[in-house]
Amino acid sequence: MNYRLLGRSGLAVSELCLGTMTFGGATSEADSIQMMHRFFDQGGNFLDTADVYVNGRSEEIVGKAIQGRRAEVIVASKVRMKVSDDINGAGVSRKHILDGIDASLRRLNTDYIDLYQMHVWDHATPIEETLRTLDDLVSSGKVRYIGCSNYFAWQLMKSLACSDANRYIRFVSIQPQYSLVSREMDREMMSLCLEENVGVIPWAPLGGGFLTGRYSRVEPDSGRLTAKAGESSWMYRATDKNFVILDTVLQAAAELGVTPAQISLNWLLQRRGITSPIFGASTLEQFEDNMGATGWTMPQDIWSRLDEASSLPSEYPNRFIEKFKRPL
Is the pTM of this model over 0.70? Predict the structure, then answer.
């Protein structure tokens, strides 16, 4: 397992991050803890959870798994989503963040969270209020670093500018959806993250299971892609372009003697600007398959073939700006 610094911080995280969204739900507590311990034993040190995952059960199970090795593990959690019917039970107001951090710390059975992330932008709360509260949490020791998730590029840049202007703590990372079948972040966000040295820890790096090779062009009657809504619904994944990408993944896997999931994750590991893809696994078998994405380098010609098949179409203003790049 290799390690990378998270954004402009000095925090070293493993090149893969284990996502815990199914822990306590589709994945039993026993399997969840065993999976995390296997992850640690194989060099992984980065876990991602959230207060809303399985109504808080995910955080509770993570808390049990890290006992006795807390200092070795980088725990990331999130706040923003609705956790109660109370009018203030959602958002990133000072009240909700302060309530949320204390609840998460209790469930995790720890006195600090390494990376505390805003789950999605909150239009109702001024960013100054959010960042001042997060700055206070870092000063208090309850949080070590802060990040965001599911932001537009302008929202991230506005946040960074607010932090700089007020000398508040800065977001060191963003957690966006990003994979071979979801590269919308290439339009503006990836170049911003490279410019500002913000770490990128993608969720759904396997396209919600689409890139594992388990699906054909026939709509499935079981599995995640049967969902009628959400990013991993069949409606969003089953496009002509995505099936071309999947065919390219399957061909690459056959050529290299690895699995489609390993191809898809390894492509991300070799992409500039990506820190740690967050992979999820419902079973121990899926976990071991995903862990096989590390420890080898994809040949450049195959990486480029995947990159070309999955790239966004030429769009304004990028195609216009490209004409005027200075050869420095």
Answer: yes
Q: Which residue type, as a one-letter code, is found at position 281?
A: A
Does residue 159 belong to any structural domain of this protein? yes
The verdict on residue 325 lying in a domain is no
Tell whether the model's pLDDT for residue 216 goes beyond 90: no
- Average pLDDT in the 50-77 region? 98
In a domain, 38, yes or no: yes
Which pLDDT tens digit goes with each residue over 80-135?
A: 999 999 999 999 999 999 999 999 999 999 999 999 999 999 999 999 999 999 99
Catalytic residues: 53
Asked if residue 219 is part of any domain, the answer here is no
The 3-class SS string of the chain reads CCEEECCCCCCEEECCEEECCCECCCECHHHHHHHHHHHHHCCCCEEECCCCHHHHHHHHHHHHHCCCCHHHCEEEEEECCCCCCCCCCCCCCHHHHHHHHHHHHHHHCCCCEEEEEECCCCCCCCHHHHHHHHHHHHHHCCEEEEEEECCCHHHHHHHHHHHHHHCCCCEEEEECECECCECHHHCCHHHHHHHHCCEECCECCCHHHHHHCCCCCCCCCCCHHHCCCCCCCHHHHCCHHHHHHHHHHHHHHHHHCCCHHHHHHHHHHCCCCECCCEECCCCHHHHHHHHCCCCCCCCHHHHHHHHHHHCCCCCCCHHHHHHHCCCC
- The count of structural domains within the chain is 1
Domain of residue 58, residue span: 3-212+258-298
Query: Where residue 135 sits, what CATH number does that domain have?
Result: 3.20.20.100
pLDDT digits (tens, 9 = 90+) for 26-41: 999 999 999 999 999 9
